């Protein structure tokens, strides 16, 4: 499937309108990768009209810095890869409560809730470029939890910093596989009162507010209904709770149909091996793409990413993707994770076991 506009076209349009490259990329909402084969239509279904709750939570773009780290944890401040320490900043305890608008606002248990956000310098982990230094291989300020019987998850983190063209915010994603195997996939963003944001930015360690170019009032994605009320102060930290009203549907309203809507990415994994070629060790993945897709390949051992590489748009057809294995990686068994995404946001995921040679 060919997207109606290229990434370059969107970025140019954003720059021309004064939005800036970062915000234009956020509006584009490029999918990074996910272990859930979820069509964008499912997230739209989660916003279907419901009379059970007065207002459904607004869906917003996931932005360009989503990475599916698959880290189940409540305290997201640390880097499990061990390359950096705990992220500094004003403490924040954030609770997200899920309510099923299609079931009289009953708590929704069993949903996967991810959050991710910038650190006190306005940078994201496990990405590079678009204003970020090379933080690839680090995973601080990312994680997920599964909602409990009360529909709640609570994260320990820090107040985010700012970066160009965006007000201060936290991304969150809700995913749930229903009884008929269809999947709800909802993304949005959370905001804070700018008086509190300014107080946080005035504390030690945060990038100065002096050059901050975007506040809530000037952010094109900001929505007051997504603002989290906070209690506390910059010394002891803040705590806040946000309730997300989503329509998780039921078997009759969310069952899949035989319509022509694009439901999955058309792709086939031919092979994935780790081999030595001359003095280099490589992961070599061969696949057939039935449509235009973006891709990511990771070499993983015991939940540690040993090597990885991303690709922009790959044309329909056969492809050979190569990832260099660093010298410091020990030989032995590992897994290769392959993620693809098409222009509609549909995703595809495959895993293969490999043996890394000496």
Automatic annotation (TrEMBL):
PROSITE patterns the UniProt entry points to: TAT
PANTHER family assigned: INTRADIOL RING-CLEAVAGE DIOXYGENASES DOMAIN-CONTAINING PROTEIN-RELATED, PTHR34315
InterPro entries: Intradiol_dOase_C, Intradiol_dOase_core, TAT_signal
Gene Ontology MF term list: ferric iron binding; oxidoreductase activity, acting on single donors with incorporation of molecular oxygen, incorporation of two atoms of oxygen
Gene3D superfamilies xref list: Aromatic compound dioxygenase
Lineage: superkingdom: Bacteria
Domain Intradiol ring-cleavage dioxygenases intervals: 77-193
Signal peptide: none
Protein name (database record): Intradiol ring-cleavage dioxygenases domain-containing protein
């Amino acid at each position: 499937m060919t997207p109606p506009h290229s990434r370059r076209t969107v970025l140019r349009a954003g720059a021309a309108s004064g939005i800036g490259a970062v915000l234009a990329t956020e509006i584009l909402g490029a999918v990074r990768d996910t272990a859930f084969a979820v069509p964008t239509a499912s997230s739209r279904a989660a916003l279907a009209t419901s009379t059970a709750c007065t207002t459904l939570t607004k869906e917003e773009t996931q932005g360009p810095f989503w990475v599916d780290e698959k880290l189940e944890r409540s305290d997201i401040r640390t880097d499990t890869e061990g390359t950096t320490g705990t992220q500094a900043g004003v403490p924040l305890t954030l609770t997200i409560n899920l309510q099923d608008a299609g079931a009289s606002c009953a708590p929704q248990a069993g949903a996967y809730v991810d959050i991710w956000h910038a650190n006190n310098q306005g940078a994201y982990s496990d990405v590079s470029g678009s204003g970020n230094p090379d933080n690839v291989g680090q995973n601080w300020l990312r994680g997920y939890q599964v909602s409990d019987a009360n529909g709640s998850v609570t994260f320990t983190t820090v107040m985010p910093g700012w970066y160009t063209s965006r007000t201060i915010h936290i991304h969150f994603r809700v995913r749930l596989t229903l009884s008929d195997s269809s999947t709800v996939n909802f993304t949005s963003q959370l905001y804070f009162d700018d008086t509190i944001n300014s107080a946080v930015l005035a504390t030690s360690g945060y990038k100065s507010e002096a050059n901050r170019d975007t506040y809530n009032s000037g952010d094109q994605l900001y929505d007051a209904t997504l603002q989290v009320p906070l209690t506390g102060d910059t010394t002891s930290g803040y705590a806040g709770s946000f309730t997300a009203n989503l329509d998780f549907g039921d078997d009759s309203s969310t069952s899949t149909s035989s319509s022509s809507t694009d439901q999955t990415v058309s792709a086939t994994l031919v092979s994935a091996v780790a081999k030595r070629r001359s003095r280099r060790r490589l992961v070599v993945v061969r696949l057939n793409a039935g449509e235009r897709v973006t891709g990511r390949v990771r070499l993983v051992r015991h939940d540690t990413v040993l090597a990885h590489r991303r690709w922009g748009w790959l044309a329909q057809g056969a492809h050979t993707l190569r990832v260099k294995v660093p010298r410091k990686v020990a030989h032995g068994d590992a897994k290769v994770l392959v993620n693809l995404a098409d222009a509609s946001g549909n995703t595809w995921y495959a895993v293969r076991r490999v043996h890394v040679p000496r």
